[in-house]
Amino acid sequence: QVQLVESGGGLVQAGGSLRLSCAASGRTFSNKLMAWFRQAPGKERDFVAANRWPGGPTYYGDSLAGRFTISRDNAENTVYLQMNSLKPEDTAVYYCAARATTFLSNYDHTTSYDFWGQGTQVTVSS
Predict the structure, then answer these.
(1) What's the distance, CA 56 to chain centroid?
(2) What Cα–Cα distance (Å) separates residue 81 from each residue in 9, 10, 42, 51, 87?
(3) Cys-Cys link to 6, which of 41, 60, 81, 120 (CB 3.0-4.6 A)?
(4) Sign of the Cα pseudo-torsion (8, 9, 15, 16, in order)
(5) Is 89 helix (H, G, I), strand (E, B) or coil?
(6) What is the pLDDT of residues 44-94, one digit of tens each?
(7) What residues does 20 pair with on adjacent strands?
(8) Element at 3 (helix H, strand E)
(9) How far, in Å, CA of 60 to CA of 36, rounded?
């Protein structure tokens, strides 16, 4: 059984940083996309970043590439999201997702991912 478990969320002041982790178990995701999405209250789940390892590519949501960095540790079957210069509008539940196939199409669609974590809350205070 595949499980994705996120950690690293919390409360941070605007301008601060957080590093989220997502540990996968039950199968490996080498050569497959792993991604981060986020969902604010009352809003849709939005794409944040995705990466296929090894060799990429890496994708980011609009205006996030300069502040957020996705990385992988395939030996540990883990994906990370480093978030810097956080803003109150980054407040959301952050979800890890993984794809069962090697396809790259529609990387920013929630329906493209087969496995999801339970989410971790990130709150940025002003």
Answers:
(1) 15
(2) 10, 14, 23, 11, 15
(3) 120
(4) negative
(5) helix
(6) 999 999 999 888 899 999 989 999 999 998 777 899 999 999 999 999 999
(7) 81
(8) strand 3-7
(9) 9
